[in-house]
Amino acid sequence: MGGVLEDALKQAAAWMATSGKTIAFTGAGVSTESGIPDFRSADGLWTRYDPAEYATLGAFRADPEKVWRMLAEMEEVFAAEPNAGHLAMAELEAEGGLAGIVTQNVDGLHQAGGSRAVVEFHGSGRSYSCLSCGASFLRAEVRVMEVPPHCPGRAGQTCGAILKPDVVFFDEAIPPQAISQTERLVRGAELVLVVGTSCEVYPASEIPQQVRARGGRVVEINLDPARGLAPHLSLTGRFSEVMPRLLEQWRSMHS
Ligand code: OAD
């Protein structure tokens, strides 16, 4: 770690130590070190699949088997473990330094790492819905060995339609509960940590700007800077290294 990053870590920790409310806004980059590819980096999912063809509800309705070829890769997330960054973030929350996380991720790794106040802005891959009969299942309940998974049906009725994970596709609305939980978190936030996200997807990308518009600070932790974010401070590096260092610095300044 160079001196520049060290200085930036100290500055960020000092701001966090005096911030009345700090929140985090996270994306796929927090999970790459857990073995899950992100979307827009060199080996990201969208370099291999065109999201217009593979990540819309319209595409799913038209050809669910095709969309499941992309979703099958996302299923790998369920074998993944939280990394040192997830764990540090959970400790920061437990010690009173973080009010909560709004994540665009559907992998559940913040929760697996011990974070409690987590808003899943783009839904969750841990549950499925049937677009045909309306049934809902936890992934663990369906226990499908096959991809794509088929609906077991409900109330004694057989169904058999291909299930859709409860992730938010590009032409779907953000779940209303996620919107209201996010509003609650953003309200009064004096600092937002923007972590592992390119901030390219609207409306999630508005979250840092909402904090800034209300006078809060924006601190970025990313390998590649997010275009258009214009943070007050940038910590360039890997989440699994930077986040534990930031926690350490915050602990040394926080009384
Ligand atoms: P992106 O793939 O667009 O951005 C990932 C960001 O994480 C990039 O800025 C990387 O530089 C950074 N990054 C990668 N590995 C990192 C690491 N180890 N440490 C720190 N930073 C790292 O992913 P998102 O911004 O999450 O939505 O994408 C947003 C949304 O686009 C996703 O939720 C998904 C996708 O389409 C939907 O499908 C609706």
Structure description:
The protein is α/β, with parallel strands linked by helices and 255 residues long. Helix content is 37%, strand content 16%. The protein is built from eleven helices and nine strands. The strands form two sheets. Strands 3-2-1-7-8-9 form a six-stranded parallel sheet, with helices on both faces. It has a three-stranded antiparallel sheet with strand order 5-4-6. The longest helix has 16 residues, at 3-18. It starts with a helix and ends with a helix. The relative contact order is 0.20. The mean pLDDT is 94. The structure holds 2'-O-acetyl adenosine-5-diphosphoribose. 2'-O-acetyl adenosine-5-diphosphoribose (OAD) binds at residues 27-29, 32-33, 38-41, 44, 51, 55, 104, 122, 168, 170, 196-198, 200-201, 222-224, 226, 238-239.
List low-confidence stretches: none
Order of strands, widest sheet: 3-2-1-7-8-9
**Overall mean pLDDT:** 94
Bound molecules: 2'-O-acetyl adenosine-5-diphosphoribose
**Compute the gyration radius: what is it?**
19 Å
The 3D shape can be described as elongated
Instruction: List the quaternary state of the chains.
Output: single chain
Strand content: 15-25%
Q: Estimate percent helicity.
A: 25-40%
Q: Structural class of the helix and strand makeup?
A: alpha/beta
Helix count from the secondary structure assignment: 11
Helix and strand element order: HEHHHHHEHEEEHEHEHEEH
Question: Mind describing the biggest β-sheet?
Answer: 6 strands, parallel
Distance between the termini: 26 Å
Please report the total strand number as a whole number: 9
